Amino acid sequence: MFEVRDERLVKKALKGDKKAWLTLIDRYEKQIFHYAIRMTGNTHDAADLMQDIFLSVFRSLDNFRGDGAFKAWLFRIAHFRCMEFYRRKRPEQGLDDTPEQPCDKPCPEMHLHGSQQSSAVVTAMQALPLAQKAVVELKFFGQFTFEDIALQLGISPNTAKSRLYSALARLKLELE
Amino acid sequence: MTENDKHTLLAAWLEDSLTQAQRKAFEQLCTEDADFALRVEMAGRCFSATESFTAPAPPAWNKSATFTDNASPRWYQWQGLPVASMAMSVLALVMVITGFRVEVSDSRLSLGFSERLDAQEVAALVEDRVDAYKQANQAVFRDYADALASQQRQSSAELTEYLLASSRKERREDFAELVKFINQQRSDDQQFYARQLHNLQQDVSALEKHQSMNPLISGGDPLADE
């Protein structure tokens, strides 16, 4: 069935069309929730983060110029909200710091739903510094190019490549 | 091979954009560099994990709460309107203070902050004012001259009338006095002649009387002694 483009839904939502906004949420809710699970490691924080992200997106909706994909813009805001979430949770921890407690253990539902391998990878991701975890998330789960990742995180493409390179070594260690 | 080259190769492999040369170098690295190979293997595992990743469905949450009616305000509710209004006021003030002028003359639009006129405009302005002043002066002078002439005519008429009236009266008085004088002279003359005649009559009477009393003398001339 013909699907209304994101940009059109954004314009409608900006004009006060609640239905268009709810359609946008339905379209990206699952992706954002899964992103939040992978970034936070548990469903409770993920649910909070997801609501926070959508609130923030709605407030910033009139800043969306439509010159890029809505999805990329959405994930950029999601990343900022995620960083904010981590700052609130662990104010003393920097973006490049390795978490002191390797992970917030993924909730049991993760193991019920996901395969063993994916659960292991997600669990190992929780041991990564936020800066590296964001690159892994966007590259593998978000399927973004390095250019897009660099744009979303406000870094250079080479930095994004370097972070991923380091993250892979760390993940390997965590999985062994 | 530098670390940066390795990052680039791995990134190109992940995005499936390896050139022929890069592919060769990549394969060589995978066989010779165990560390690099581990990373490639881990990347593969991550790809597999994304494919098999399933997570619980999002919980039910109040999606409507994220929607607040922030529909675009009407043009008259535009937030920038007060700012624009204030900016226009400030601009107007600046234009007034600096003497900003907009002039359209002879199909020419001039904008400027100076109140100074060019020489041609000044000359035209001065000429206009001098003309107006001259005309006003001429009108005043004309009125003044008219008034003066009228006053002079009136004065002349009054003077003439006065002169005529006064000379007539004087002459009348002079004639009256002349007549009076002549009459007086005549009266004096009459009295004198009357007195002379009286004296003569007396003398004559006296002689007659004398002659009558002295006839000797009557042969002579009674008046010869006198």
In short:
Chain A: This is RNA polymerase sigma factor. With 176 residues, chain A is an all-alpha fold.
Task: Give the tags.
heterodimer; A: 176 residues; mainly alpha; Rna Polymerase Sigma Factor, Chain: A; 9 helices; 70% helix; globular; B: 226 residues; two-stranded antiparallel ribbon; 4% strand
Write a structural description.
- The complex is a heterodimer of chains A (176) and B (226).
- With 176 residues, chain A is an all-alpha fold.
- Chain A is built from 9 helices and no strands.
- Chain A has one domain (6-175): Rna Polymerase Sigma Factor, Chain: A (Orthogonal Bundle).
- Chain A has helices spanning 6-14, 18-40, 43-59, 70-89, 108-113, 116-125, 130-141, 146-153, 157-175.
- The longest helix of chain A is centred in the N-terminal third of the chain and has 23 residues, at 18-40.
- The N and C termini of chain A lie far apart (46 Å).
- Among the domains of chain B are: 3-52, no CATH class; 87-116, no CATH class.
- Chain B has helices at residues 3-14, 20-32, 34-52, 80-98, 119-213, and strands spanning 101-105, 108-112.
- Chain B is rod-shaped and about 225 Å long.
- In chain B, strands 1-2 form a two-stranded antiparallel ribbon.
- With 226 residues, chain B is mainly alpha-helical.
- The chains are: A mainly alpha (176), B mainly alpha (226).
- The A-B interface holds A 13-16, 18, 21-22, 25, 29-30, 33-34, 37, 43, 47, 50-51, 54-55, 58, 61-62, 109-110, 113-115, 117-118, 120-122, 136, 139-141, 143, 145-146, 157-158, 161-162, 164-165, 168-169, 171-172, 175 and B 3-4, 6-8, 10-11, 14-15, 35, 38-39, 41-43, 45-50, 52-59, 61, 63-64, 66-72.
